[in-house]
From TrEMBL:
This is Ribosomal RNA-processing protein 12-like conserved domain-containing protein. Gene3D superfamilies: Leucine-rich Repeat Variant. PANTHER family: OS02G0782100 PROTEIN. SUPFAM superfamilies: ARM repeat (SSF48371). Residues 1089-1098 have a biased composition (Acidic residues). Residues 1132-1156 have a biased composition (Basic and acidic residues). The lineage of its organism: Eukaryota, Viridiplantae, Streptophyta, Embryophyta, Tracheophyta. Residues 1063-1076, 1161-1170 have a biased composition (Low complexity). Residues 344-651 form the RRP12 HEAT domain. Residues 1265-1278 have a biased composition (Basic residues). It comes from the Eukaryota. Belongs to the RRP12 family. It holds the Pfam family RRP12_HEAT.
Length: 1278
C-alpha cells in the first residue's frame, strides 16, 4: 500500500479529507501509514480545538503551518513528521479552492521548495513535494513568470535526480505544468529553461565530467535523464525551443550510440504523433533523412529497427502535412529505408516496415505526384531526356521488393505492391510496367520453394484492376492464349473491374475466334486432348464476360453491337448461357442500383460505397445518374429481342436448364417497357390456355390411353415451362396481368401431375413475395384456396410452405383476432408436420417458416408482443396432446426451435417439462428423441441461475428417461448430464443426483480428467491447430439437436474467442517460421549458385531478374538430381505413361522425341478404351482375390494336386505374402480374429512344425530340411 493511492475520488469540496485518510490507512500495519494517521489525527484535533471547519482549505493550512517551521532547519529532513505532512499536503492541494491557492499558493510553494532542497529527504517525501508544487503552479496565478520561476526551477532540477522514481515524478509534473501553460506567455520562458538545462548538460557531457560536485550523475548520464524528460515535455514546449532541441537531437544521432539513439527516436515518435504544428518541417525532415540513410540493419535489434521504421513513416506523414513540396523530394529515400528494414530477419521490424510502406503510399502519394511522373514518362518516350521523378524512384524501389533478398517476405512485398496499384490506378501502366512483367515472370518459379503463389495472383489481380485488362495485355504483349499464359485467365476473371465492353468485343472475341479456328484442325489430326484443351480456353475466355460487365465504361456505346453476339451464343451454345445471363444481370442490377441511389439520401450512397474495393469505387465514380439512365435506356431497347430468344430457349429446353435464364428475364422485365412485357406475357398465357384445353379434351376422349399419356406428359411439361416463363416476367406486370396469372395458377394447384403442381406453387410463392398489394387484396381468397389444395405432392411441399409463410405473416398483422387465430390454427399443423419431412430442403424451410412467423409476432404490435408470443407458443404446444406420435414429436420439435430462437419463451418452455416427462412413459422412440432434443435446447440457451433453480427436476426426469430407455438413449442422457455439469458445475449436479446414480457422475468425471491429461500431453502447434480449427457452429442445426449423439450444445463465446486467437497466433507463428525457412533455403541456393559461378562472371544479386533466373535454374537442376524412379512419367500433352515392364526407356534423341510428339494424341486416344477396360478387368481380379484390398499373395503358385508350390515360366520364384490389414487396429476381438485368418493360412504348416522350438533351433532345423530337399521344386520361400 502506497501513499500515492487515490483516496479523494469520491470526496466533494467540503468533505472531511482527514476522516477519509484515516479510513483509508488506519487498518494498515505499516509504520509509515500509522505515522500518517497520527499526523492527520493531530491536525484534525487542532482544527477542532480551534473550532475551524474540517474542510480541505483548513487541512491545507493546518499542514502548511508545521511544514513552515520544519523548512527552517535542514536537520528536519529526517524528522518523522516531514514526509507524512508532505503526503497529506499533496492530498489537500487538488481539493483546495482556486482562490485559496492563488492567495496562499506562492508562500506554500516556497516552503515546500526549501524542504525539497534538503539532501537527506526521503524519496517519498520528494515525490509528494513535487506533486504539491505542480498542483499549486497549475491552479495558481500564472500572470508573472518571476513568481513561478523559482518553484519551476526546483521541479526542473529534480528531472535529473539520481533516483529513478523521483525523476519519473518530476517528468510527470513538468508535463502537467507545461500543459497548463499552453496559449500563455509564460510558456516561452518555461520552455527556454528546459532548453538551457539541456544545453548545460550537453556541455558537461562534452567535457567528459564524470560527476558533479555533489556526487550526482555525470554530464552524459544527465543528458540521458533530460532526454527522458523531453519525451514528456517536447511536444508541449514553445516552437522556438522545441526546434532548438530538435537540432541537438540530430547532433546526438550522429554519435551512433545505441542508448542515445533509442531515447532520441522515442522523443521524435512522440513529437510526430502529437499535434505540434510549431515544429520546423525542414529540421524534422533532415533528422529523418539522417536516420533513414544510416540504418544498420545487421547491427540493430528487432525492436530498435521497428522503432526506426515507425519513426520514419510517422515523421514523413507529419512533414507531408506541414510542407508537401519538401516531403515529396525525400519520399524515395524513406521508402528505400523501409525496404531495407523489410529485408531484415526480425518479425516485429518487418511488420513495422510493411505498415509504414502501406501508410505512406496511401497518405503521401497523391494525384499531383502521380501526374508529374506520368507526364515525365510520356515525354521521355517522345525523346525528351530528363531525370527520374520522385514517383518513378519510388516505383523503382517497389520493383526492388521482388528481388531475391526479399524472398522470405514476398508475401508482404506483394501486399505493398497491391496497395501501390490501388493508389496509382490507371497510371500504373506508365509507372509500374516493369513491376507487372516481373510479377508475371515469378509465376514460373517452382511450387516447392515458392509458397506465396496465391498472394502473387492477388497482386497481379490488383494490377489488372488498376490498369485494365487491355493495357495489361499490351504490357505483357499477349496476343493469344496458350499453355504459358492460360493461368492468367482465372486472375483476370476475378479482378477485372471498370473495363470496356469494346475490349471484350474486339480483343477477347478475336482470341476466341482464333482458338476456335484451330479446333477442327486438331480434331482432324486426331489430337483430341489438344482440342479439348482449346475448348477449355474458349470457355475460360467467355468467362471474362461477367467481369467485363462489372461497371463497364462504355455500356451505352457498345451494348447494342454486343447483343447480336450474345443472342447468337444463347441460341447455339448452351454451355455459355449461364455466363451470358449472369453478365446481363450484373449490367442491369448495377445500373438500377446507381439510378435508385441517386434518388435517395447521400448518406445511403456513402454506406454502400464502404463495402467496395478501391478499384470498384474508382470505376463507380465514373457512373452518374445520367450515365446509369442512359445505360438502362440502351438495354431497355434491346429487351424485346432478348425476350424472343428466352421464349424460344425456354420451350425448347428442359426445366432444369432454365434456371440461369429466369433471373436474367426478371431483371429485363423490371427495366423493359410495360407494353413489351405485356405482349410477351399475353402470348404465353394464350398458349398456356390452349394447351390446357387440349389436356381437358384428351381426358374426355380416353380411348387410346397409352398415346394420350405420352401426349399429356409432353403437354404438361410445356405448360410447366410456360408457367416458369410467365413468373419470370412478374416484375414488369401490372395488377391486371398478375390477376390473370393467378387465375391460371389456381386450377393447376390441384393438378395430378407432380411437376406441374410444383410449378404452380412456385409461381404463387413468387407472386406473394413480390406483390404485396395482391396479397392484401386477395387475403380472403388465399387461405381457402390453400385449404382446398392441401393434398399436394411431396415435391410441392417446399413451395407450398413458402406460400403459407407469406399468408400467415400478413394475417398476423391483421387487427381481427378471431380471423388471425383461425388462419394460423388452420395451417400451423401442416407446418409442424413438415418438420418431419424426409426432404431436407422442405424440413429446413419449415423450421425457417416457424421462426419467421415468430418474428412476425414480435414486430406485429409493440404493445402485444408477449401476447402474440404466448398465443403462438400455446398453439404449437397444443399439438403435444395428440394421440399420434408423429404429430406429438413434430410439435415438440417446433417448441424447441421457437425456444432456441426467442429467449422470452424459455420460462414458458420450462412449464412444459412436466408434461414432456410424462410423455416418456409412452416409450415411443420418436417422442423420446424429440423430448431429449427439447431439453438439450433448454440447457444450452438457459442462464446458469435459472438452470440451477430447475436442476433437480431436470436431473430427476432425465434419470427416469435413462431407466426406461434403451442403451441408445442412455448415451443421449449422459450427454445432457455432461452439459449440465459444464454449465452448473459438478458440485451442483452432485447435490441433486440420487445415490444410486453416483457412478454415472464418477464416470463422467474420470472421462473428463482423462481428456484433460491427454490434452496436456499433446504438445506442439500441429496438435493444437488440429484441435482449435474445429469450431462448432452456433446456429440452429436440427440434425445436431435431434441426432443420436449430437453436440455439446452452445459453447461459451469466450472459449470460441480464445480458440480463434490461438489459431491466429499459430498462423502468425507459422508464417514467421515459413519466412525463416524460405530465407535459409534462399541463402543455401544462392551460395550454391555462387559456387558454381566461380570460374565465370560473378552473379549480380542486385539484378532481380538475374537472381530469380539463377534460383529457378538451380532448383530445376536440384529437382533433376533428386528425381526418383517412383515419379510418374508424363508426356508433353499431359498424359500419364504406364510402362508394363516397369522400366523406363533410355533417353531418346531430340529428333525422335519431336517426331513422337506429333503422333501422341492419336496413339494415346486410340488405345484409351482398350487400356481402361484391361485395367479395370485386372483390378476386379485383384479385388476378388483378396478380402482386404488387392494384393499379390502368391496363391497362384500353390499346387492343387500336391503339397508345396510349383514354379511358372517367365514368373517370379514361388512366394507367400500376407497383406497388412487395418482390421488388426480395431478394438473388437472378432475383427482382429478375421484379420488373423490371413496369417494363419500362410503359417499354418510351419507353425505345427516349429512349435515349441527356440528361434536358433527353428532356423537350424529349417535349414537342414531345406537343404535335404534342395532338389525338390515345391519348397516355398517365406
Amino acid at each position: 500500500m502506497d501513499f500515492e493511492m487515490e483516496i479523494s475520488g469520491d470526496l466533494s469540496d467540503n468533505s472531511d479529507l482527514g476522516a477519509a485518510v484515516l479510513r483509508r490507512f488506519e487498518a494498515s500495519a505499516k509504520e509509515e501509514h500509522q505515522r500518517l494517521c497520527a499526523v492527520v489525527g493531530g491536525i484534525s484535533q487542532s482544527l477542532k480545538d480551534l473550532s475551524m471547519p474540517l474542510i480541505p482549505s483548513s487541512y491545507f493550512m493546518g499542514a502548511a503551518t508545521p511544514l513552515d517551521r520544519l523548512s527552517m532547519d535542514p536537520a528536519s529532513a529526517s524528522d518523522p513528521d516531514t514526509v507524512p505532512l508532505l503526503v497529506f499536503l499533496s492530498y489537500c492541494v487538488p481539493m483546495v479552492p482556486v482562490a485559496v491557492v492563488r492567495r496562499e499558493g506562492a508562500r506554500v510553494c516556497q516552503i515546500v521548495a526549501r524542504i525539497l532542497g534538503f539532501e537527506s529527504l526521503h524519496e517519498k517525501g520528494i515525490k509528494a513535494g513535487l506533486r504539491c508544487i505542480a498542483g499549486l503552479i497549475v491552479s495558481g496565478d500564472k500572470s508573472s513568470w518571476s513568481n513561478l520561476s523559482s518553484c519551476y526551477g526546483v521541479v526542473l532540477r529534480l528531472a535529473t535526480h539520481h533516483r529513478e522514481m523521483v525523476r519519473m515524478q518530476s517528468h510527470a509534473c513538468l508535463r502537467d505544468i507545461l500543459q497548463s501553460f499552453q496559449n500563455l506567455n509564460i510558456l516561452v520562458p518555461a520552455s527556454e529553461a528546459i532548453t538551457s538545462a539541456f544545453e548545460r548538460f550537453l556541455l558537461l557531457a562534452g567535457g567528459s565530467i564524470p560527476q558533479d560536485q555533489t556526487g550526482g550523475p555525470g554530464g552524459a548520464t544527465q543528458v540521458l535523464y533530460m532526454l527522458g524528460a523531453l519525451k514528456e515535455c517536447l511536444p508541449l514546449m514553445a516552437p522556438k525551443s522545441s526546434n532548438v532541441i530538435l537540432k541537438y537531437l540530430k547532433t546526438l544521432l550522429d554519435l551512433h550510440q545505441s542508448v542515445v539513439t533509442k531515447a532520441a527516436v522515442e522523443i521524435l515518435q512522440v513529437v510526430c504523433v502529437r499535434d505540434t504544428n510549431g515544429v520546423n518541417p525542414a529540421i524534422l525532415l533532415d533528422i529523418l533523412c539522417t536516420i533513414g540513410s544510416s540504418v544498420p540493419v545487421e547491427e540493430k535489434q528487432g525492436d530498435q529497427l521497428a522503432s526506426v521504421a515507425r519513426l520514419l513513416y510517422l515523421g514523413m506523414k507529419k512533414v507531408y502535412n506541414l510542407n508537401k513540396e519538401m516531403a515529396v523530394v525525400k519520399l524515395p529515400l524513406i521508402f528505400n529505408s523501409l525496404g531495407d528494414i523489410l529485408a531484415s530477419e526480425h518479425e516485429e521490424a518487418l511488420h513495422a516496415a510493411f505498415e509504414g510502406s502501406t501508410t505512406l503510399i496511401e497518405s503521401c502519394i497523391d494525384d499531383d505526384l502521380i501526374n508529374q511522373g506520368v507526364m515525365q514518362s510520356k515525354s521521355r518516350k517522345q525523346g525528351v531526356k530528363s531525370g527520374p521523378t520522385s514517383i518513378e524512384k519510388i516505383c523503382s524501389t517497389f520493383e526492388g521488393l521482388l528481388g531475391i533478398q526479399y524472398s522470405a517476405v514476398w508475401d508482404l512485398s506483394f501486399q505493398i505492391l497491391s496497395v501501390a496499384f490501388d493508389t496509382l490506378g490507371e497510371s500504373s501502366c506508365y509507372l509500374m510496367a516493369e513491376v507487372i512483367r516481373s510479377l508475371v515472370e515469378m509465376q514460373t518459379l517452382p511450387d516447392e520453394d515458392f509458397s506465396f503463389r496465391k498472394q502473387l495472383h492477388e497482386t497481379i489481380g490488383s494490377a489488372v484492376a488498376a490498369v485494365g485488362p487491355k493495357e495489361f495485355f499490351n504490357i505483357l504483349q499477349v496476343k493469344d492464349i496458350n499453355d504459358d499464359n492460360a493461368w492468367l485467365l482465372p486472375v483476370l476473371k476475378q479482378h477485372i473491374v471498370g473495363a470496356s465492353l469494346n475490349f471484350f468485343q474486339i480483343d477477347v472475341l478475336d482470341m476466341i475466334n482464333k482458338i476456335q479456328a484451330t479446333i477442327p484442325k486438331l480434331v482432324n489430326e486426331d489430337k483430341l486432348f489438344s482440342a479439348k484443351r482449346a475448348e477449355g480456353y474458349v470457355y475460360s475466355l467467355w468467362s471474362l464476360l461477367p467481369s467485363c460487365c462489372n461497371y463497364p465504361s462504355d455500356t451505352a456505346s457498345y451494348f447494342m453491337e454486343l447483343q447480336n453476339v450474345l443472342c447468337d451464343k444463347l441460341c447455339n451454345e448452351p454451355n455459355l448461357r449461364g455466363i451470358i445471363c449472369r453478365s446481363l444481370q450484373t449490367l442491369i442490377q448495377q445500373n438500377k442500383r446507381i439510378a435508385s441511389e441517386f434518388k435517395q439520401e447521400d448518406d445511403v450512397m456513402g454506406t454502400e460505397d464502404e463495402h467496395l474495393s478501391k478499384s470498384e469505387r474508382r470505376a463507380r465514380q465514373l457512373y452518374s445518374n445520367e450515365v446509369a439512365e442512359e445505360n438502362l435506356k440502351v438495354m431497355k431497347a434491346s429487351s424485346s429481342k432478348f425476350f424472343k430468344v428466352f421464349h424460344t430457349l425456354f420451350l425448347e429446353s428442359s426445366s432444369e436448364g432454365n434456371g440461369c435464364m429466369q433471373p436474367a428475364m426478371r431483371d429485363f422485365a423490371s427495366i423493359s417497357d410495360k407494353k413489351v412485357v405485356r405482349k410477351v406475357f399475353i402470348d404465353s398465357m394464350k398458349e398456356l390456355l390452349s394447351l390446357t384445353k387440349e389436356v381437358v379434351n384428351a381426358k374426355q376422349n380416353d380411348s387410346e390411353s397409352m398415346q394420350i399419356d405420352n401426349q399429356s406428359n409432353s403437354t404438361n411439361l410445356r405448360r410447366a415451362l410456360l408457367l416458369d416463363f410467365a413468373a419470370s416476367l412478374l416484375p414488369g406486370l401490372d395488377a391486371k396481368e398478375i390477376d390473370l396469372l393467378f387465375s391460371a395458377v389456381k386450377p393447376i394447384m390441384q393438378d395430378s401431375d407432380e411437376k406441374l403442381q410444383k410449378k404452380a406453387y412456385k409461381t404463387l410463392s413468387v407472386i406473394l413475395k413480390d406483390s404485396g398489394d395482391f396479397l392484401k387484396k386477395n387475403l380472403d381468397i388465399l387461405p381457402d384456396l390453400m385449404l382446398d389444395s392441401s393434398n399436394c405432392h411431396f415435391q410441392s411441399k417446399r413451395y407450398r410452405l413458402e406460400c403459407l409463410y407469406y399468408i400467415v405473416a400478413h394475417v398476423l398483422k391483421d387487427s381481427f383476432e378471431q380471423r388471425r387465430g383461425e388462419v394460423i390454427s388452420s395451417f400451423l399443423a401442416e407446418i409442424l408436420l413438415a418438420l418431419k419431412e424426409a426432404n431436407t430442403k422442405t424440413r429446413n424451410r419449415a423450421y425457417d417458416l416457424l421462426v419467421e412467423i415468430g418474428h412476425a409476432c414480435e414486430v406485429a404490435n409493440d404493445g402485444a408482443r408477449k401476447e402474440n408470443f404466448s398465443l403462438l407458443f400455446n398453439m404449437v404446444a397444443s399439438g403435444v396432446t395428440s394421440e399420434i406420435p408423429h404429430m406429438t414429436s413434430a410439435a415438440i420439435k417446433g417448441l424447441a426451435r421457437l425456444t432456441y430462437e426467442f429467449s422470452d419463451l424459455i420460462d414458458v418452455a420450462y412449464n412444459m417439462l412436466p408434461s414432456a416427462f410424462l410423455l416418456l412413459q409412452r416409450k415411443n422412440r420418436e417422442i423420446i428423441k424429440a423430448i431429449l432434443g427439447f431439453i438439450k435446447v433448454l440447457v444450452a440457451k438457459s442462464h446458469v441461475n435459472g438452470l440451477n433453480e430447475r436442476l433437480s427436476g431436470l436431473v430427476e426426469g432425465l434419470l427416469k428417461c435413462q431407466d426406461n430407455s434403451t442403451n441408445h438413449f442412455k448415451a443421449k442422457v449422459k450427454l445432457l448430464i455432461e452439459m449440465l455439469i459444464t454449465k452448473c458445475g459438478l458440485e451442483a449436479v452432485k447435490k441433486v443426483m440420487p445415490e444410486e446414480h453416483m457412478k454415472l457422475l464418477t464416470n463422467i468425471r474420470k472421462i473428463k480428467e482423462r481428456k484433460e491429461r491427454k490434452a496436456k500431453s499433446l504438445d506442439g502447434s500441429e496438435s493444437l491447430a488440429s484441435k482449435t480449427t474445429v469450431s462448432r457452429n452456433s446456429r440452429w442445426n436440427h440434425t445436431q439437436i435431434f441426432s443420436d449423439y449430437g453436440d455439446d450444445g452452445e459453447e461459451n463465446d469466450d472459449v470460441t474467442e480464445f480458440r480463434r486467437s490461438r489459431v491466429n497466433s499459430i498462423s502468425r507463428s507459422r508464417a514467421a517460421s515459413l519466412r525463416s525457412t524460405q530465407r535459409r533455403k534462399t541463402t543455401k541456393i544462392l551460395s550454391e549458385d555462387m559456387g558454381d559461378e566461380q570460374d565465370d562472371d560473378p552473379l549480380n544479386l542486385l539484378d532481380s531478374q538475374t537472381a530469380r533466373l539463377a534460383l529457378q535454374t538451380s532448383l530445376g537442376s536440384k529437382r533433376k538430381k533428386e528425381s526418383s524412379y517412383d515419379e510418374p512419367e508424363i508426356d508433353s500433352e499431359g498424359r500419364l505413361i504406364v510402362r508394363i515392364e516397369g522400366k523406363r526407356p533410355k533417353k531418346e534423341k531430340q529428333s525422335d522425341r519431336s517426331s513422337d510428339d506429333n503422333n501422341s494424341d492419336s496413339k494415346s486416344f486410340a488405345s484409351k478404351k482398350s487400356l481402361v477396360s484391361s485395367a479395370s478387368t485386372k483390378a476386379n481380379k485383384r479385388r476378388k482375390g483378396s478380402e482386404s484390398g488387392w494384393a499379390y499373395t502368391g496363391k497362384e503358385y500353390t499346387s492343387k494336386k500336391a503339397g508345396g508350390d510349383f514354379k511358372k515360366s517367365d514368373k517370379l520364384d514361388p512366394y507367400a505374402y500376407w497383406p497388412l490389414d487395418r482390421k488388426l487396429l480395431n478394438r473388437r476381438a472378432e475383427r482382429k480374429a478375421a484379420a488373423r485368418k490371413g496369417m494363419a493360412s500362410v503359417m499354418k504348416k510351419m507353425t505345427k512344425r516349429l512349435e515349441g522350438k527356440s528361434a536358433s533351433s527353428a532356423l537350424s532345423a529349417r535349414g537342414v530340411k531345406i537343404g535335404k530337399k534342395k532338389q525338390k521344386i515345391g519348397s516355398k520361400s517365406r
